[in-house]
């Protein structure tokens, strides 16, 4: 297999073939050894009197900082409210969240007395949630479903299963020991309980969220499981919808919990472990078979983001003798369509930075991102991310064949701009080097890295257990012949890689690719480190030694704080969103049985924030596409049996 350091090997004892990275004898960083000891000793010389004298000032500054946040939020919310009364629903939800948080317990009583908290709550409150009110659900305008049901006569037909993306499903605790007891059956991912735990009980929260380094499963004494039902991913926290709007619109066509389900899962686990621990794919197979038997109708699968890879894996698993053993035509008999929303078939470059240096930006939900970014350092985040074996499924696939090399990349800006300057007189950086190092970046003798070399660099810095699990679960290369496809069709490592497996024998099935573009998206990176050598980059020497080089580069147009930006939906580059849909799956090698492929592109066109903080009906960035009216209309047509009306729509340069 070609196209990357993690291609399939036929001998389980073979080592992963890594791109060669120069090595050199290194010097320790200033964080290690005698230098660090001396620094600690110096700090220890501060007298008790000095420390005591410094406390009042620090406490006072912290109190004013916290009170400033509350006053600022109140002022901003008031401004939005009076600018646009339709935002009342957002204000109301924010009030509920503040009520759940018990803000008074987080602030000094002397600074924020209870009557001030009460006044702020009254300011944010727009209605009263009485007994029995379903406070977690906010109904919208049920559009565009109401209009389509009237004008096009759309009604429910096929059974529907929604498959969320990474970090969308809520995770709840079923542990009963030690620090777990206060959180029994509460969500430690999603809802305000997560925020409380991070703020007030961070060590316990981290203990629950991390997976065991040896097994990739639950640590001893810890049990975290995906929440079940439609509310497992309808809202991330109160007021922040994920699948909520889609569920509302499907309900207009007549769907309810008997023919519309949400297949939530523990996204931290590798797909093989999802089946091993939770029998996730067995349950999904049974669900679809029962639905067909009961209703006589096939199922439409609607995955979002990472969910598209979960379904890609499922379609190979279910037909394999080593999986569901459903036979080669199982998908053709049971699945009407797969509607990929902002799918990630070829991975996401920002996953590389998350695992390499613990810098996650928007790897997690924006709301969770704020807390993780401000209350945890890169070391803590890298440890958490590297324990999540499911996250590695989003590493970019296809190596240099897809992502380019040092001579350039397929999705580079205009060639003249990439090599020279543009109309603004600013240079444009090529994406071919996935990781770049300036000459003064502090890394000894490491050159710019292509995607294959960058994955090899990641492999070097992981500890031995992480290396073993990565090799056990995934493959990131490219197959170019039918013989390679046949030889590896039952190897679960290739089931998440569309460049190393073929679509099922389902000529009556359709795969729709609906995604947005036109949003600035991370594509490559500038990296730096303290003066270290390659050997010192390994996790055992302190992780992570490398970091994104955030120095300002005013002469580069497509670089912002060390991130080389490109075209995409704000999270996934266009190359990953669209290549398989626009080209790869239209080739016999990857689609030998003629599965119908439909690609629909939507330009990201958000409304002003004061009108809708989520971007409104025209937003098509990675998360808010779930509320895009045109996208929702396509979903409704497919599930109602009118998928033949949904055809290709290209408006990018994919």
Largest sheet: 6 strands, parallel
What is the spatial order of strands in the main beta sheet?
7-1-8-9-11-16
Work out the oligomeric state of the chains in this entry.
single chain
Number of strands: 16
Radius of gyration from the alpha-carbon trace, in angstroms: 25 Å
The count of helical stretches stands at: 23
Mean pLDDT: 81
Shape: globular
Structure description:
The chain is of the alpha/beta class and 654 residues long. Helix content is 37%, strand content 11%. It has 23 helices and 16 strands. A hairpin with a 2-residue loop joins strand 14 and strand 15. Helix 7 crosses helix 8 and helix 14 crosses helix 16. It starts with 32 loop residues before the first helix and ends in a 15-residue tail after the last helix.
Q: What's the arrangement of secondary structure elements?
A:
Layout: H1 33-44, H2 48-83, H3 88-101, H4 103-106, H5 114-124, H6 145-151, E1 159-163, E2 171-173, E3 187-189, H7 191-200, H8 202-209, E4 224-226, E5 235-237, E6 240-241, H9 244-252, E7 260-262, H10 271-278, H11 280-295, E8 299-303, H12 307-319, H13 330-334, E9 335-341, H14 349-357, H15 366-375, H16 378-387, H17 399-403, H18 415-419, E10 435-437, H19 451-461, H20 464-473, H21 482-487, E11 510-517, E12 519-529, E13 546-548, E14 559-560, E15 563-568, H22 574-582, E16 596-603, H23 629-639
Parallel strand pairs: 1-7, 1-8, 8-9, 9-11, 10-12, 11-16
Antiparallel strand pairs: 2-3, 2-4, 5-6, 12-13, 12-15, 14-15
Helix pairs in contact: 7-8, 14-16
